[in-house]
Each structure stands twice: as structure tokens, then as C-alpha cells.
Design goal:
- Helices cover 22% and strands 18% of the residues.
- By secondary structure, it is of the alpha+beta class.
- The protein has a single domain, classed as Glutaredoxin (3-Layer(aba) Sandwich).
- Strands 2-1-3-4-5 form a five-stranded mixed beta sheet, with helices on one face.
- Helix 1 (36-50) links the parallel strand 1 (21-26) and strand 2 (60-65).
- The chain is globular, with a radius of gyration of 17 Å.
- Bound molecules: FE2/S2 (inorganic) cluster.
- The site of FE2/S2 (inorganic) cluster has 10 residues, from loops.
């Protein structure tokens, strides 16, 4: 087997803007059969802007992801670094998550289906 040639240049180190939290919305086909997750994503930039989460020290980074191996009861939203995984994130429930969690720093316990490691207090999951 012929060894690969040594790279002659090192890629430029990428960078992203500073953010407080990272919100990931699954828009995979099994979560988004009716377009609800994509419709949610399409509203979030404006919702974050209205809540003051689009810039500065409270900035929220938004990403669409294609699957987190749950595949039911969506739209699903994961908020890191708090480790909070939300289900049934309708527009109204997203408004609660924005007000209570992203602005108020308190996880919305009744919408969490999984609490992973993170910086938020773990809710009681039944
Ligand atoms: S498609 Fe969303 S978790 Fe699998």
C-alpha cells in the first residue's frame, strides 16, 4: 500500500461567533413528516431576535440536525450546554422554552424527555 503524501498546507483554523447556548432542531424525515420542525426552524431567527438572543453575551446559536436517534414525538429540540432534550416543541412550547430557559435560565421540566449532562439543574423525568 502506497503511503499517503504528507499534506503540504494546514487548513485555516475555522472560527464561529461567541454564543451562550446552542439550540439544535431535528428536521430529519422521521421527525418532520408534516413540516412542523422545519416551520419551527423558519421562525426561530425572528423569535431569538425579539427575545434579544441573536447577539451579545446571551446569543443562541441555531442548527438544524438530521437525526438524534429518537425519531418520535417531535419536533425535537436539544439545548446545549444544558443537556436538555425537549419534545413536542410546538410554536407555543418554543415560546415557553425561549422565555423560561433561554432567557430565564430555567429548564421547562414538563417538556423535557431526557436530561443529559450539562449545566442546568436536572428536572424530574417520569
Ligand atoms: S429523525 Fe429526528 S431524531 Fe431521528
Amino acid at each position: 500500500m502506497t503511503p499517503l503524501p504528507e499534506p503540504t498546507t494546514i487548513p485555516e483554523k475555522p472560527s464561529i461567533g461567541v454564543y451562550k447556548r446552542h439550540v439544535m432542531v431535528c428536521t430529519g424525515i422521521r421527525c418532520d413528516q408534516h413540516g412542523d420542525a422545519q416551520a419551527l426552524v423558519d421562525t426561530l431567527s425572528n423569535k431569538f431576535k425579539v427575545a434579544g438572543l441573536h447577539a451579545g453575551p446571551t446569543r443562541v446559536k441555531l442548527s438544524q440536525i438530521s437525526c438524534i436517534a429518537v425519531c418520535r414525538s417531535g419536533p425535537l429540540v436539544c439545548v446545549q450546554p444544558d443537556g436538555a432534550w425537549y419534545y413536542n416543541v410546538t410554536s407555543e412550547n418554543m415560546d415557553r422554552i425561549i422565555a423560561q430557559h433561554l432567557v430565564g435560565d430555567q429548564v421547562v421540566d414538563d417538556l423535557v424527555f431526557h436530561q443529559g449532562p450539562g449545566t442546568a439543574a436536572a428536572p424530574e423525568i417520569s
